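Fold this sequence, please.
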Amino acid sequence: MDGTERLELPVDDDDLPFDPADATIEDGDVFESLEPAVQEWWIEEFGEFVPENDGFFTPPQRGAIPKIHEGTNTLVCAPTGSGKTMSSFLSIINYLYELDRDSENGLENSVYCLYVSPLKSLANDIHRNLEVPLSGIEDVVAERDGEGSMGEIRHAIRHGDTSSSDRQKMLEETPHILNTTPETLAILLNSPKFREKLRTVEYVIVDEIHSLAAGKRGTHLTVSLERLEAMAEGEVTRIGCSATIEPLSRVAEFLVGREEPGGEPREYEIVDARFAREFDMELECPTDDLINTPREVVQERFYRTLHEHVQNHTNTLVFTNTRSGAERVLHNLRERFDAYDEENSGCHHGSLSKDVRQDIEGRLKDGDLEVVTTSTSLELGIDMPHVDLVVQVGSPKSVASLLQRIGRAGHRVGQTVTGRVIALDRDELLECAVMLKKATEGFVDSVSIPENAQDVAAQHVYGMAIAEIRPEAELTGILRRAYPYRNYGEDEYESLMRYLTAEYAGLEEKNVYAKVWRDENDPPDGQHHHETFPVGEPLIGKRGRLARVIYMTNIGTIPDSFTCDVYTRAGDEWVGQLDEQYLDTLEKGDVFVLGGNNFEYRYRRGSKVYVDRTSARPTVPSWYSERLPLSYDLGREILAFQGELLERYEAGGPPRVRAWLREFPLDDNSVRAIARLFDHQCRYAGTESVSTLDRLAIEVVRDREEYERHYYVHSTYGRKVNDGLSRLLAYRCAQEATANVRVAVADNGFVLSMPLNRKVDIDGIIDDLEAEQVRADLRSSLSGTDLLQRYFRINATRSLMILKRYKGYEKSASEQQVSSEMLLGFAEDLEEFAVIEETYREILEDKLNVSEIEDIVGAIDAGDLTVTRQLLDSPTPRAFGLATLSASDVVLAEDESAALQSFHERVLDEIGDESLAGLTAGSDDE
C-alpha cells in the first residue's frame, strides 16, 4: 500500500491522540509490516503518532524497520535519543513473535539475536528497549486470545560480571536475545557448550559502533562476527547503530565484512538520519579579551553563565575535557551558589566507583539531578529523557564528539537539541568556532580504522585452533573476511605463524611457547591423521594442555594500566605518582609539574620514574594524557578557516572579519575575540605568519633569559600528527645540532627548543624530508623510547606472549612491564617478529598518524605546501598557547596570565604605531 493512505488501526479512533481522517501518515507501509499485536502495543504504549514525524516512527525507525524486516544488513546512523536501537529490536521482536506463533513447538532453546555493546552499563540499560515491548506485546496477546497464545521470548545479559550460576542457568534456559560485550562474545565462541547455542543466531546488533570502529576492540569484534557467521546455520543479518560518524560506507563495510576473502563487501543498506533533529548550538565566551581580563573575572563570569543556564533548564549535563575538571566545576558551583548540593547535583567519570556511577546514572535518568558534570563517561550509554541542555566547557576536539555530547539533550525527535559551548582559552575559542560552524553544515570527522593488527589476529587464530582442528585455508578465510584484515598479506600471516608456532630460536627459553601447530594431514596410517580432512590438507590445531584456560583468561584488547612512583635521582626521595599513560609524552629532559613542583624527567625502570628537581618551565602539561586529540580533519578545516579569514582581513580589515564571523553560531564576545586575535597577529608579523592549507608557518624566537632558541611550528593538524612530525624533526635537529632538542606538542602546533648556542636550518631540514622516508625515519626515532616500551608490553600481552593470568596468579600491569622490558631487546633482534612489527605499526599508524605526515611532507616536496620562517623578538599571538602549554587546561590551569600578558604587551608595543614591525631584518646570524 502507499505509505500515505489511511490505515485500519487496531484500536478505536477515540483512543488516538489525532484524527486519522485528517492525518498524513508517511510511514503507513512500515506500520503495516508489523504483526497486529505489535502494532497495537506500539500505538497504545510506545509509539503514538508524532506530528513532527508525520507518522508513528522517527526517521531512523522509518528507514531501518523495513530493511531489517527483509533481512538486509543495515547501518543506522542517527543522533542519540532518535530511536535507532528500538528500530532494530522492534523488527526482531516482531519476527520472533511470528516465529514463535507459527512454529509447532515455539522457539528453540537457543540464541536468535545477539546485542553487542561496548559498555556493560549499556547492556544493563536495556529495559526500555526489550522488557517494555516484550511484556507489552504479551499483554496485548493475552487480552486478544483470552488465556494468550504467545510463548516467552527470553532475554538476558552476559558479560564479565555475570555469575557462574547465571551462566549455567543460560545453558539450561537459553535467552533468545542475548546482550553482551565484544570480549564476552569471543569467550562464548570458544565455550564448547554455549557455542552450540549460537548456531541459531539470525541477527546481530552492534550498538554504538562508532565507539568501536576506531580501536582494536572493534577489530576484535569483526573477527568474532566472521567466526559466528562461519558456524551459524543460516545467514546472519547485521545491524549497526551509530551516532554521528563518517564515512558511512566505510563503517558499514566494517560492520558487514566480505563475502569472500579479498572479495566485495556483503550487501548492506545505510539509514542516514544523522541530522534528523534540530540543533540549537552557540559558542560563548565570558569576555572579548581573554588576555587582559583578570582570571578571577573570567572564572566569575563563566560560573555565573553556567549557573544561569542550569537554572533556565530542567536537567543540565556539563562536559569538561578532564575528570579533574568535572570535579572542579561541580565543586565551584556548590561553593559559589546555594542552589546546589548533593541532592540535586553530581559528578560522573571513570575514576569513581561503580556504585557512585550507577547512583548518578539512576538519578539522572529519573530527572532528580539538576546538573551533572562529567568528562567522557556519559557520552554513551543510558537514556537521559529529562536532560534538556548540554554545556561543553572547552573544545571536545571533533565535530563527532561535539554532536555525540550535545545529542544527549532533548531525548525525542521533534525536540530541539540545545547545546552551549563555553571557551575560556583563545586557541580553543578558534577551534570551537570552526567546529560549530562545520557541525551546522553537516560536516563530520572521518574515523580511522586500524588494519592488520597482529596481536588481535594472534588471539583469534589461537582461539579458532582451540575450538577445533581445522583447515588452514578456512582459518585464514575467516580472518580475511573481516574488514580490518581484507588486505592481510601472506608475509604478515607467515610472520604471525612463526610467532604462534615458536619457530624463532631461543623463544621458548624466554618462556614463550608455541600456541598452535600447523601441518599437512597425514595418510591414514600416519601418527597425525584426521579422517575428516583430505590427506595432504594443511591443518591447524592447538598446542598445550592449558590452551583453553590460557585463552579464556587472557583475551581482550583493553590494556591494563598502572601508576608509576616518582623518585628524585639525588636523594631517592619519593615525590608522587604519575599515570603510566602520561609517560608516553615524556622524553629525557622534559619538565613536568607534580605536587606543585617542577621536575625534569630522566628515565624509567619498570614502574619507577627517576627525575631531577628543576626551576625550568614545564614542557608537558599535566592534562596531556587525559584529553582527546584534535581530529586531523577538523585541523584542516581550521587551516581553511584561517585562509578565508585572511582574505577578508586583507580586503577590509577587522570590520570585514567581524561581519563574516557573525554568520557563525557565536556570541559577540567570541566574534570580537577572534577578530582581535588575528588583527594583532597580522599587524605584528604579517599574514604570512598564519598557517593555511597551502602554507606552514614557522617562527623562531630567541629566549635570552632561558638561553634557548624556540622554533614554533604552526602545524594545526591535531596532536597525533604533531606528535609524529615533531619527533621526526627533533630527530633530525638533534643530529644536526649535536644537542638535546626538547619538544612540546599541542593540537595547533609544536615547539622545538635547544640551547641558544646551537642552531639548525629548519627550512633545510624540512626541505630534505622525503615522503617515502618518513615511516623509516619516524621508526628510527622511536628506538629506546618509553613509548616503544609501553606499547610493546601492551602488544605482547594482547598477543599472549606475556600472560596476565596463569595458574591462578594474576600479573599486574607493572609486573607485565618488567617482563616486557626483559623481552624487548631479544624480540627486536628477531627478524620480522610479529609482536614487534605490530608495536611499531600501532604507534606509527594509530597513534602518530604516519599516513597524514607522509601527505604533508609530500605536499611540501610537490610545492603545494610552502614553508615560511620568520625570526621574531617574541612569540606571536597564535603562538601564545604553545609558549605556555602548562596553562592549557581551562578549568584547572594555574594562573599563568602574567606570562601571557607579558607576550601580549610586547606585541602591542610593536604594533602600537600601526606598523607591521616585529620582524628582525636579516637572518638568525644577525
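Confidence is low (pLDDT under 50) at residues 1-11, 886-895, 913-926. The chain is about 40% helix and 15% strand.
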